[in-house]
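Hi everyone,

Forwarding the result from last night's run.
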Amino acid sequence: MNSPLDQEVTVLKGIGEETAVQLAGLGIHTIRDLLYYLPYRYDDMRLRDLSEVEHEERITIEGKVHSEPSLVYYGRKRNRLTVRLLVGRYLVKAVMFNRGYLKGKLKPHSTITVTGKWDKHRQTITCNEVVLGPHEGVGDFQPVYAVKGQLTVKSLRRFIKDAFDDYGGYINETLPESLLEKYKLASIANALKFMHFPESGKEMKQGRRRFVYEEFLLFQLKMQALRRTRREGTRGVGQNYDLHRLKAFISELPFSLTNAQKKAVNEICFDLKSPYKMNRLLQGDVGSGKTVVAAIALFASVTAGYQGALMVPTEILAEQHVESLQKIFSHTELSIELLTSSVKGKKREDILNRLRSGEIDIMIGTHSLIQEDVDFHHLGLVITDEQHRFGVEQRRVLKEKGESPDVLFMTATPIPRTLAITVFGEMDVSIIDELPKGRKPIETYWAKHDMLDRVLDFMEKELREGRQAYVICPLIEESDKLDVQNAIDVYDMLSQHFKGRFKTGLMHGRLHATEKDDVMKAFSKNEIQLLVSTTVVEVGVNVPNATFMLIYDAERFGLAQLHQLRGRVGRGSSQSYCVLLADPKTEIGKERMQIMTETNDGFVLSERDLELRGPGDFFGKKQSGLPEFKVADMVHDYRVLEVARNDASELIKSDSFWKDEQFLPLREHLKESGALSEEKLD
């Protein structure tokens, strides 16, 4: 046994086998588990002034009994005791259920303290705690723990108190003195005491502050250690690209790079040259110019004697990438080819032979790139666009087409910085957070359903000028459960409305892949002026002539998704518009619409979305791989998260972390978490 804290909870007085089983249901087996079982909130038992209290708030008040209490019995053993209390200048009715025994003790003019839910309209408090006598002010913050079964919060508080009294002296510090001193953090023993038995709001904050930092630091240390071991364990190709040619290529581009693009290019080029394998995420808002950055990286790799591969989720996107890269590389002799399931027979055979011989410099394609017969001559750089659309296995197969090629993931989904540094902690992250010059911000309006006629007039004005429009709907067909406009109904209505003037197309997820491609191609060529669609148009489609988007029942989408949809317009030089048709019922729904009309910045939106929805919802409940923190909150404590990440990075790099005695508990934690091999600790 390492420590008395590792003893089973049954050593405590009052915990028998039955209670131990119930505690085990909460994950509490040892004294240590009990001490570290932290409250999820606190009841504020401080006395409140009734003039400042909101309706249905839980409050504590002290008052004088004003009149004889009345007791009413109903049902078997059930009763309601009502008494009037004078609280300052207010006469308040206090209602207590099943406390008939107090009737004789509530003497007129005696003082009592009650806690419960306040009904502002009826000037009534429904009490769940009653203390005969004045408010003592001790333990103003009562911890509330998650309990289940027969266990009560009260009994859990008692067990934790006993554990503290008997074993508190055995709690060992986990953080080094240098960090405790640097951030003026409470010791672990004090922090636990403050969390369980705070005597003031200040103590409660001190306890929480210590745990937030420690949870983030331990998590980030694990991520940084994994990153380091992976990096050192995977020797990259160390691409010695031709800097002179690369600079000349960039200077011949028909536009200059934004500062954010330059920064991303420098980070990627540094990784290409390093002897370690690149594992980088390139995040950029819709239209921020990620393709140019990718092109520069591919060009650098080719000058170092390697081939590059770009894998995208759909055929139409692959074709658009080929088109835009051919323009970018028009003043070079690079050979670019496209490989999708549509490329068949002799043509496919010819492409595969040229790829094997090294005649093709850059290969762009869908998952066709990872088929068995696709062999590269010398693959050095793998770029995956909208990487979350591919499975881990698909990405792995493409990487194995070369000998440890550098890997760059790209996404146009702005992941909040808070989540990026947590979820992608083992990756390097480059962010392009500014738009190229000349891009006009999309004007966004929020309209109620009864304004649809005006919206359609606005749309027609754009169509008459030769432009095109999208109309997005949340569902394909009518649903009894949801009162939302569906794509088929809207398509029928708009086909009728614009009959003889403009051609309307329909696109949704139930169409076969080739049907979807046909519709999109017709829209790209302006054979269709108005495209009614579900959210399948979300990723990557580029139709610069489309300047108008109408989103039906916009309150049904999250901010990040609305932003992705809006990004389908605004791709040409003309002014573009997005209209959100919505009658939100909730405050959050209204706030979403408001935020959308105020900003075009995907990163600002994604941070706001995170605040409104929480990290679990942002990524979808279980897909997220988000760490579970007991105390820390990634959204509200993100500044601490960044501090902890920087500290973890510095520690992992320093020699003292691996040798000094003060860091031993942190090294032990890394070992237990599986982030380190045994040898690293010796």
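The CA atoms of residues 13 and 162 lie 8 Å apart.

Cheers,
N.
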